[in-house]
Automatic annotation (TrEMBL):
Residues 1-23 form the signal peptide. Pfam families: LRR_1, LRR_8, LRRNT_2. Residues 32-69 form the Leucine-rich repeat-containing N-terminal plant-type domain. InterPro entries: DNA_repair-toleration (IPR053211), Leu-rich_rpt (IPR001611), Leu-rich_rpt_typical-subtyp (IPR003591), LRR_dom_sf (IPR032675), LRR_N_plant-typ (IPR013210). One of its GO terms (cellular component) is membrane. It is found in: Membrane. It comes from Gossypium mustelinum (Cotton). This is Leucine-rich repeat-containing N-terminal plant-type domain-containing protein. It is a single-pass membrane protein. Keywords: Leucine-rich repeat, Membrane, Receptor, Repeat, Signal, Transmembrane, Transmembrane helix.
Length: 324
């Protein structure tokens, strides 16, 4: 008796398997395409016709402007619509871009709140909603993006408090919440983000003391707390931030003796230093900040003479002393 041949059966199985894989591949990218088409429908103004002329089903979504697809999964991994002058809202369908690692819609005119469906974008590493007209509370679910390294929400109309869940972002390096309507205190949990290098909270309505826990951010090189309602003396712990190159504490209700404050920065490597509401005389130790390029001490209550050691600041380009 002749042995039955398994080749036709094997070929049929392989063909079916390949067909399923191919079908799944294209159905998934079709999902991504439908998401962007939903976004396009929510755009009410596209003055440069970026999307109107480019986002067309006649071409692959991976070739659309602002879109990058991963070569392995053939799914959208990056969406960059920054600085296109787009006006519109963010659709809930955007949360279906399950392979998205980079999302940048900064410098546009998006308005409304952030839909909770965006919480499903668990692969995000970079998120920029800066310079739009978004409003509502800063979503608590932003703290669940375990891979997030950069978060930009500056220049919007977010209000309420900084959610404590942001302290879960153990890989966060850049955080900019400046120019919003955020109130309350800086949550202590935020100082668990020990990878932070850039922290900007300027021009909000934050209050209270600058927490001593800020010393935990040992990698911090840029700190903007200006334009808030912080009060009291600055804890010496801030002097432990030896990586700082830029610090702006002006336009708050902070007080203190400038010589005491500067003595905290024995190892300070600042290039830019902005202070306000301090009293006393300018200490000679200021001349030790050899890398200083910009020094702003206007609107303080400083007395005495300018120390001769200022001449040691060979890199100094700007020095403001008015209104003392």
């Amino acid at each position: 008796m002749a042995k039955p041949s398994f080749l036709p059966l094997m070929f049929a199985l392989l063909s079916a398997t390949f067909g399923v894989i191919l079908s799944a591949k294209y159905s998934n990218i079709t999902i991504d395409q439908s998401v962007l088409l939903a976004l396009k429908l929510d755009i009410t103004h596209d003055p440069h016709n970026f999307l109107a002329t480019n986002w067309s089903i006649s071409t692959s979504v991976c070739n659309w402007i602002g879109v990058i697809c991963g070569s392995k999964q053939h799914r959208i991994t990056a969406l960059d619509l920054s600085s296109m002058d787009l006006t519109g809202t963010i659709p809930s369908q955007l949360g279906n871009l399950s392979f998205l690692a980079w999302l940048d819609i900064g410098d546009n005119n998006f308005h409304g709140s952030l839909p909770i469906e965006l919480a499903d974008l668990h692969r995000l590493e970079y998120l920029n909603f800066g310079n739009n007209n978004l409003d509502g509370k800063i979503p608590y679910w932003l703290g669940y993006f375990a891979k997030l390294q950069s978060l930009y929400l500056y220049g919007n109309n977010f209000d309420g408090v900084i959610p404590f869940t942001l302290g879960n972002l153990s890989k966060l390096e850049m955080l900019n919440l400046g120019r919003n309507q955020i109130s309350g205190r800086i949550p202590d949990s935020l100082f668990k983000c020990k990878e932070l290098e850039f922290l900007s909270l300027y021009n909000n309505s934050l209050e209270g003391n600058v927490p001593t826990e800020i010393e935990n951010l040992t990698l911090l090189n840029t700190l903007y707390l200006d334009g808030n309602y912080f009060k009291g003396e600055i804890a010496p712990a801030i002097g432990n931030l030896i990586s700082l190159v830029t610090i702006n504490l002006s336009y708050n209700n902070l007080t203190g003796i400038i010589s005491y404050f500067l003595s905290c920065f024995v190892n300070f490597k600042a290039y830019f230093l902005y202070l306000k509401n301090f009293i006393g005389v300018i200490p000679s130790t200021l001349g030790n900040l050899s890398k200083l390029k910009k020094l702003s001490l206007f609107n303080n209550d400083l007395k005495g003479v300018i120390p001769i050691t200022i001449g040691n600041l060979s890199n100094l380009e700007i020095f403001y002393l008015i209104s003392n």
